[in-house]
Task: structure prediction
Amino acid sequence: MVAIERDVAIVGAGPAGLTAAAYLAARGLRVIVVDEYYRAGGRLLGQRYENPKKPPPHRLWNGEQIACDLEARARRAGAEFIVGTSVWDVAPHWHLALSGGTCDTLTARALLIATGCAERAVPIPGWTLPGVMSIGAAQTFTNLHGIRPGARVLVAGIDVLALSVAREMAQAGVDVVGMALPPPSPPAGATALPAEVIGGLASAADLAPSLALRLSARLFGGRLRHVGAVLGSLDVLRVWGIPLHLGKAVMRIEGRDQVESVVLASIGPHGKFGREEAPVPVDAVCISGGLYPLIELVGLAGCPLVEIADLGGRVPLHAPDMRTPVAGLFVAGNVVGVEGATVAMAQGVVAGASIASYLGVGGTRTAAELASAQAQVARARAEAPLTFFPHSAQGRARLAQRWAEEVQRRAAGTTRVTAPTHAVSGERSMP
Amino acid sequence: VSDSGQDVIVCRCEEVTLAQVLAAVGDGATGVAGVKKRVRVCMGPCQGRVCQPIVQRIVAAELSEWADDIALTVPRSPARPILLGTL
Result:
């Protein structure tokens, strides 16, 4: 039984966890970061793209390099890392149960949960065949490990992340035969509706060099009655040489022991099926269904959860300074809503300053640093090359309102937060 | 959803099909927890990381409600798969 004790425990060594660790260690606090992967960096590790909003010398976003730099900065400041280790339970003030590494328990005065997000799966008939993977897995294979996900790949799901990864695969020599929508079904939701998908692509218009896409996204996004008329012409649209089938869905993935082909069918703007086409031979399929925050540990720590679709799903109730209603528990990064890495990095500093203040370190300087870090979050949002959820600002406003209500309730002394308040199970007509 | 698509796997860990999830809703489940107790979705190694968001949307569609009005399961320990030696 190996037990260790520090001032601050951080779960998740992604962009938020790393900047928080560097900030806190630099202020003399004993900080330890735990991550499940074999190395620090989180989703930064697979990111590699160009941001045309930046001047040429700063255009390339090399996530792996940024992750290495952030980790080195945190280590120089004195932060320690435990990698290849899962946190599987959290008890208040604060005891973490670990598995997979050499350490079993971790005790800390403050806890930052920066667990990021996970991918939403979309079940398509045949999706359990070897050769089918999530778009995030394809990104990691291609950009981090230098392994092609397949020789001929079809991408199911058309969104900003899928577009970016499809281009990266093509640049790595993969024959990306095309991108099409998932079949219309409840789990696919809006990701299968051409009208919604075209609207969502508007946020990627700055990234896409294709004028046609830019025009279609800007002109037709959200204006449903026009979509049907342009769908036929959009169906032959190519972006970076990759055919974008905005009017077709992947009905089935076929193969005996592994992926051999996909069957596409045309669909109308609101999800009505057309005729199936002849199978297209492929050896891999990447499914992209969007991202959602990973809140298991926040829930176990007793933080109330609020379901806000515009932020990606259930998120922890928290203040603008990344405090939660639970004393000593802080959150940062995509666990509070799916956004880009630069926003997460800024949020990590905000959480760091809040934790320093909570632990009584830094005095008045901490307050100034907190304010400037919050301003940096707003700047990072404004400069982000793409948006995952087009209405995230409204989502954050709803969450801020919930926080204000929470503060009011607590001032009135009517409630004390101890555990999540979700109903365990709704059942119809219980006798 | 077409009838032919009902044998698609929804929960990979426990190999639960769409038809089984729909049957659970027909049997009275109104949230993910109700489906979980009936057909074991969310009970495998991934503890619902893959299937829970899918099941939420299926239940919502069956009951004609918004997905965010369908209750998800309460997070429980162990949050991640752990080694036998840890127990």
